[in-house]
Amino acid sequence: MSKTNALIIKARGLNTQPNELDVPEGSLRVAENVEVTRDNVVQLSPGFADYSSNMPDFEVQALFAYGGTLYAHADDGIWYHDGSNWLRKRARFGAPLSRPYGMILSGSTLYLSDFGKHVIWSIDLTTGARTVLAGRYGTSGATNGTGDAARFNGPAGMTFTGGSLYVCDRTNHVIRKVTTAGVVTTLSGTLGAGSGDVDSGTAANVRFQEPTDIQALGTSLYVCDKTNLKVKTVTTATGASTTLYTTGSANTTPNAITTDGTDLYVCTQSEATPNTFDSEIWKITTGGSKSTITTMAGACNAIYWDSTSSRLLVASQETALVYKVTTAGAATTFIGGGSGTSVDGKASSATAGTVSVCTIGTVNYFAADANTIYISEGTTPGVPALRKMYRSTEYVTTIVGTGVSYGTGANSPTEQIDAMILGPS
């Protein structure tokens, strides 16, 4: 690939003299982690205008030259230069993610709980618009209300039914209901009452201890009441609770739950010896009958029924991999190179060819439609990020976060540019 232009950058505070970098047409990795502002020299030469004109102040993670257009992957979105001005192609989160957790896709809207910043995000996948639906960013609490007036304390797993979200407010030990207008109420449990293990026909008397995940099925919600070592049934209409299944071991906790529309699937974590984890995938009927689908090494902390392909997706923190698991228990690696450093690329070596394989951190949740699988990643290992994988290309890219990589294959630049601007697969 021959050099077609030279990018001249003078990055304030990093370089006292402009640096000339090769920019092969279609190449993506031009410059990383530099601050580019209107006070600096940014131009393509020869035959290109001065790109410092009309430049807003932004911090650039990478600069791209593709199809005769200069793109800037900045801290607040994807920008491009139209020959006269810098224009923002797609906005990113105005505030950084801390620990993205639960995630629900409803139509073209993606709802995301941020455990570390105590809010529920609403993301329009068509326009890229994003807002805090409920809670105040960075402020924990225990208050019902609308939008900014509501307070959460570590919102975790979520489900969607009857036009509303139901959220495990983990550190408040309650189940919250959130409408699409941002109205927050407590469905089951009592804010400020602390943790416990109480089932009751009266919602206010119910007690949970660190509920982590929740799944709607029929007229009920099924809750992983993690520290109580139970899966509980909560009536959606009233908030009353009963215990569906108890793990039976002080070392076995229910971490996450999903459904195929008939039965429930639960991933559990066992710590037989300190810091050594194993996991089991259970199938539990709504009548409370349990069978083990498979056993896996490491702590599996996310599970999702992928209805498009009729399979389970299971994430392991220890191996930093996502597995696809059949209902018969056959598990194969689906996403990840295993290093856990949150880098974009092809899903696995099976489809990568000469393109880099992605790596992932701690996966907390999945959501999906017919074309795309969405992944929320926390930390340890990895970085907070919201990512997606195109089913057609099995390419994993970062929507929000820092998991940016540029690959080496012939198809990588086009795929990465498409991913950066959230274009179609």
Provide a compact summary of the structure:
With 425 residues, the chain is mainly β. 3% of the residues lie in helices and 49% in strands.
Verbal overview:
The structure is a single chain. The protein is built from 2 helices and 34 strands. The strands form 8 sheets. It has a 5-stranded antiparallel β-sheet, covered by helices on one side. Strands 13-17-16-15-14 form a 5-stranded antiparallel β-sheet, with no helix packed on it. A hairpin with a 4-residue loop joins strand 15 and strand 16. The protein is globular and about 65 Å long. The two termini are 24 Å apart.
Helix content: under 10%
Major β-sheet annotation: 5 strands, antiparallel
State the shape. globular
> Spans of 5+ residues with little confidence (pLDDT < 50)?
1-50, 403-425
Q: How many strand units?
A: 34
Strand content: over 45%
Q: Strand arrangement, largest sheet?
A: 3-5-6-7-8
Overall structural class, as computed from helix and strand content, comes to mainly beta
Query: Overall pLDDT, averaged?
Result: 77
Number of helices: 2
Determine Rg (CA atoms, Å).
Answer: 23 Å
- End-to-end separation in angstroms reads 24 Å
